[in-house]
Amino acid sequence: MLDFLLTSDAIMALLTLTFLEIILGIDNIVFISIAANKLPEHQRGKATNIGLTLAMVQRIVLLFFVSALISLKEPFYSISTSWLQLHISWQAIILFSGGLFLIYKSTSEIREKVETPEHDSNEVKGKKINSLSQAIVQILLIDFIFSIDSILTAVGMTNGLSPNHNENLVLMIIAVFISIAIMIGFANPIRKFINTHPSIQLLGLAFLILIGFMLITEAAHLSETELFGKTVGAIPKGYLYFAIAFSLFVEFLNFRITKKKKQ
């Protein structure tokens, strides 16, 4: 287990996944702050910390559930025609459905942030909260909605890294734990930074489109799909790491240029 976690692939996956989990968690932090701010001053910090801690437990439970489904690799149905061959398993269905969901959710989020950036915040503001327990329930419901794309991202980044299913699960849990801990400790500075540089969050959502496409191709690869005699191969995760690193480097250069112009 320790040998796997210290490999370059596992470290790169952990760093990339933690970064994406934090970027994806920004909206979560904003909505949690809105819910907590409806409470008296002395209860706000407590509601945020309890809510995020329970959210972490909720995500880990969901990770176990999704991982159990992904471990079902045996095909239960096959299709064989003159132009298409594939062997369908629950693993392939989960990966394919998850990929489609990530692409849909990411493009929808990008459109909303460009056209109606305050839409979701206004919905949360409109809900009444009269007690600490109500605030925590509201925070858990908000986090459950945001957990879906977060968990699918974790699955996409770790699936196939190790033949041992449990090692991939441990890597996902570590990434979730680190990202939630960072959000608890540095929620306000992270939120201010993203508000100042909204393109970072848009980049994170764009990365989800790549991960969604990667999940779809991986589902086709694991199903041994052949289309017109051509086998569908899995996309190496190194391509994804390079795309993310290159995009962040370009964004860093853009940030430096903008800062110098202001000075």
Q: What does this molecule look like?
A:
- Helices cover 78% and strands 5% of the residues.
- Helix 6 crosses helix 7.
- It is globular, with a radius of gyration of 20 Å.
- The protein has 9 helices and 4 strands, in the order αααββαααααββα.
- Strands 1-2-3-4 form a 4-stranded antiparallel β-sheet.
Short description:
The protein is mainly α and about 260 residues long. The chain has 9 helices and 4 strands, in the order αααββαααααββα.
Secondary-structure blueprint of this entry?
Blueprint lengths: L1 H4 L2 H29 L4 H30 L6 E4 L3 E5 L1 H26 L3 H7 L6 H27 L6 H32 L1 H25 L3 E2 L2 E2 L5 H26 L1
Antiparallel strand pairs: 1-2, 2-3, 3-4
Helix pairs in contact: 2-5, 2-6, 2-7, 2-8, 3-6, 3-7, 4-6, 4-8, 6-7, 6-8, 7-8, 8-9
Tally of separate helices: 9
How much beta, percentage-wise?
under 5%
Helix content: over 70%
| Global Rg | 20 Å
SSE succession? HHHEEHHHHHEEH
Category from helices, strands and their pairing? mainly alpha
Beta strands, count: 4
Assembly state of the chains shown: single chain
Major pleated sheet = 4 strands, antiparallel
Mean pLDDT: 78
* Distance between the first and last residues' Cα: 50 Å
Tally of individual domains = 1
**Strand sequence of the main sheet, in spatial order?**
1-2-3-4
Q: Given the C-alpha coordinates, what overall shape results?
A: globular
Low-confidence stretches: none
